Amino acid sequence: VLAELIEKFVSQLSESQSDCYFSTGNYKATDVDVKNDSLSSVQQLGVEMTVRYGKYLNLLEEHAENDLCFVLMNCEKFLKQQQRTVVSSLRCLQEHSPGYDWFASSIFLIMSGDGEKTLTFLQDFSRLLVSAFLWLPRLHISVHLPITTVESGIHPVYFCSGHYIEMLLKAELPLVSSAFHMSGFTPSQICLQWITQCFWNYMDWSEICHYIAICIFLGPDYQIYMCISLFKHLQQDILKHTEA
């Protein structure tokens, strides 16, 4: 039901000119060669983990690995068309893909391992502003960003969502904010980790689905409220660890 709902919602929005924030051009998915050596070792490990998790959740069949490789490699090619050429000593800017794509993998699981549906959804989704916040590889060395932002190697989620999370945390949960300040760690570092991984390994699958759906339906600012609510939920543990 969720797959059908987000599919129809995103499809409708992506056909409306006023809702499309990014122009993406035309991309035809190709039946790329899905030999393992086409993927980096990090991606291969990610694929194994995703398929294992998908089978544990009873969402994937036996041949799922090939379908997921098909999605990831096409996503890489599709996003590559919208990337700049950057000369930089920063390692994160020398790669076309910034590590494993957890968002595409989450959508793949929501679509029950249907590669074609996943890819169609992601192409429609990439036109919307919310894609910049939920799908982090979407803006990796992107032509849609000012060159100074690209060259910094810092993703907009870090200085945009992260900034608002810290601002709200001070107002809503001052004790948690102080605990982070004392630890020398910033809440936005933790949140970037959560968001990059789509909260995998931090929340249950149903909650991950809720997070993705809420941000798509209600807007990317709900990403910020989700992080704040998690800090509120963890407040007692955070304060206990600070004392210890």
Topology:
Blueprint: H1 2-15, H2 41-56, H3 64-80, H4 102-110, H5 115-125, H6 131-134, H7 147-152, H8 156-159, H9 161-172, H10 174-183, H11 187-196, H12 205-218, H13 221-233, H14 235-243
Number of helices: 14
- Return the structural class: mainly alpha
Radius of gyration: 18 Å
**Mean pLDDT over the full residue set:** 87
Order of helices and strands: HHHHHHHHHHHHHH
Q: What kind of sheet is the major sheet?
A: none
Protein model, in words:
The structure is a single chain. With 244 residues, this protein is an all-alpha fold. It folds into two domains: 140 residues, no CATH class; 88 residues, no CATH class. 61% of the residues lie in helices and 0% in strands. The protein has 14 helices and no strands. The termini are far apart. The mean pLDDT is 87.
The gist of it:
The chain is an all-alpha fold and about 240 residues long. It is built from 14 helices and no strands.
List keywords for this structure.
mainly alpha, 2 domains
